[in-house]
Write a structure and sequence with these properties.
This protein is α/β, with parallel strands linked by helices and about 350 residues long. It has 13 helices and nine strands. It has helices at about 5-35, 60-75, 95-105, 135-145, 145-150, 195-205, 215-225, 235-240, 265-270, 270-305, 315-325, 330-340, 340-350; strands spanning about 50-55, 80-85, 110-115, 160-175, 190, 210, 230, 245-260, 310-315. Strands 3, 4, 5, 6, 7, 8 and 9 form a seven-stranded mixed β-sheet that branches. The chain has a two-stranded parallel sheet with strand order 1-2. Helix 6 (about 195-205) links the parallel strand 5 (about 190) and strand 6. The longest helix has about 35 residues, at about 270-305. The chain is globular and about 65 Å long. The structure holds (2S)-2-hydroxybutanedioic acid (LMR). The site of (2S)-2-hydroxybutanedioic acid has 10 residues, from loops.
C-alpha cells in the first residue's frame, strides 16, 4: 500500500467510525428526546433559528431552485427569527458528510439523493430499480400512495426525519461512445451514486461500477479515471458533464429524487409556531419545485443539444426493450431487501 492509499484508507476508517458514532448518537438522542409533548414550547422571542442547508447540485437545478425558494419563503414568513443558509454545489460538504453532520447537529437540513440512504434503509432502493418508474408522474403517484408516504418518515428513529420528497428527474446514460445497446457498455467504468442497486445495474450491462461523490465526477470523467456515468439532464448540464462526455443516451432508465430531512431532535426543539410554519412552507415549496422539475430538465436537454458538445442518442422501441431486459434481473436481486410489497405498490400506482 503506498502512502496515498494508506492515508486514504486511514481517513476512510476514521470517517467510517465517526459516521457510525454519529448514527448511534442520533439514535440515542432521538430515543431520549421522545418528541416532547407539544414540541418545542417556550423560547425567547429574540432567538434566531439558523438552518444550515448544504447540498451538492448547482443553484439552477431543481434542488438548487427549491432550496433557494425554501430560504426565501421561510425567512419572509419569520423575519428575523429564521435564517436559512443554503450552500449549493458541494461548497460546504458532500452528501456522505452531510448525513453525518446532520446527526451531529452541525447542519440542520439536507436534501440527499434517495440512492444514498442504503446504510439506513432498504426501502429507498425501490427508487433505484431500473425502469420501474416510467415517468415522474409515476414516481409522484407512488410517493403519494399510503405505502410511499409511509417511507417518508421511516428513518426518523435513526436521526433523519423526512419532511418531503423532492424530484430531480429521470436519469440518462452518458459515455465515450454511443450507448445504443446494452453491449456497448461492456467494460466501461461507470461512476454511480453510493447505491448497491446501481452497482448491480451496471454489472448487469457488463460495466465496472465505481461509487463516487458527485463533486468528483467532472474531473474523473475529464482525466479518464471513469468512462461513463448516469444522471439527469439538469445535473449533466449544470455540472458540465456534457463537455467531457461526447454521447448521452436518452434512456430515462431511472430516477433521481431527494429526501429532504432534518434532525428530529432539532425539529422538535423549535417553537411550535415556527416548526408548523416551516412545515407549511416546505409543503408549498415541494409542490412548486416538483411541478417545475421536468421543465428544468427539458431546458437542460435543449441547452446540451444546442451546444453541439455532446450528441444525444435516441433509442428505438427495440433498443429500449433490450436495455430493459438487460437490467431487469436487478429487481429480483433486491426484491427481498426492498420488500415485494413496496415494489408492487410502485407498480400499482403507475398512472
Ligand atoms: C449524484 O450524486 O449524482 C446526485 O445525487 C446529485 C444530486 O444531488 O442530484
Amino acid at each position: 500500500m503506498n502512502f496515498d492509499s494508506a492515508i486514504h484508507s486511514r481517513d476512510s476508517l476514521v470517517r467510517g467510525a465517526r459516521r457510525i458514532a454519529a448514527l448511534v448518537l442520533a439514535t440515542v438522542l432521538v430515543a431520549g428526546c421522545g418528541g416532547g409533548a407539544g414540541g418545542g414550547g417556550e423560547a425567547a422571542q429574540d432567538q434566531v433559528y439558523l438552518i444550515k442547508f448544504p447540498h451538492v447540485t448547482a443553484p439552477g437545478t431543481p434542488k438548487g431552485q427549491a432550496a433557494q425558494r425554501f430560504k426565501e419563503l421561510a425567512e419572509a414568513r419569520f423575519p428575523g427569527r429564521v435564517v436559512v443558509e443554503v450552500y449549493p454545489s458541494s461548497q460546504l460538504m458532500n452528501d456522505d458528510d452531510s448525513l453525518e453532520a446532520l446527526a451531529f447537529g452541525e447542519i440542520q437540513m439536507i436534501a440527499v439523493s434517495l440512492s444514498k440512504f442504503d446504510r439506513l434503509t432498504h426501502s429507498y432502493q425501490v427508487f433505484d430499480l431500473p425502469f420501474l418508474f416510467p415517468s415522474l408522474e409515476a414516481v409522484e403517484a407512488f410517493q403519494a400512495s399510503p405505502a410511499g408516504r409511509a417511507t417518508l418518515t421511516e428513518i426518523a428513529d435513526r436521526g433523519f426525519l423526512g419532511l418531503a420528497f423532492w424530484h430531480n428527474g429521470m436519469k440518462q446514460l452518458s459515455g465515450p461512445l454511443p450507448l445504443q445497446m446494452p453491449e456497448d457498455a461492456d467494460g466501461l467504468k461507470f461512476r454511480i451514486m453510493e447505491s448497491d442497486v446501481l452497482q448491480a445495474q451496471v454489472l448487469q450491462i457488463g460495466g465496472s461500477p465505481q461509487k463516487m461523490a458527485y463533486g468528483e465526477v467532472y474531473q474523473a470523467l475529464q482525466t479518464g479515471a471513469i468512462d461513463a456515468q448516469e444522471n439527469t439532464w439538469s445535473n449533466i448540464y449544470s455540472s458540465k458533464f456534457y463537455e467531457v462526455q461526447p454521447y448521452i443516451t436518452d434512456s430515462n432508465h431511472g430516477y433521481i429524487g431527494y429526501l429532504v430531512a432534518v434532525n428530529p431532535q432539532f425539529w422538535q426543539s423549535l417553537p411550535d409556531d415556527i416548526r408548523v410554519g416551516l412545515e407549511e412552507v416546505m409543503a408549498d415549496v415541494t409542490a412548486w419545485g416538483n411541478a417545475r422539475s421536468a421543465e428544468i430538465n427539458q431546458q437542460a436537454r435543449a441547452n446540451i443539444a444546442e451546444s453541439g458538445r455532446s450528441e444525444i442518442i435516441e433509442l428505438s422501441p427495440e433498443e429500449l426493450a433490450a436495455w430493459q431486459e438487460a437490467m431487469r434481473p436487478v429487481w429480483d436481486q433486491f426484491s427481498d431487501d426492498i420488500g415485494a410489497d413496496l415494489i408492487d405498490a410502485a407498480i400499482a400506482s403507475r398512472p
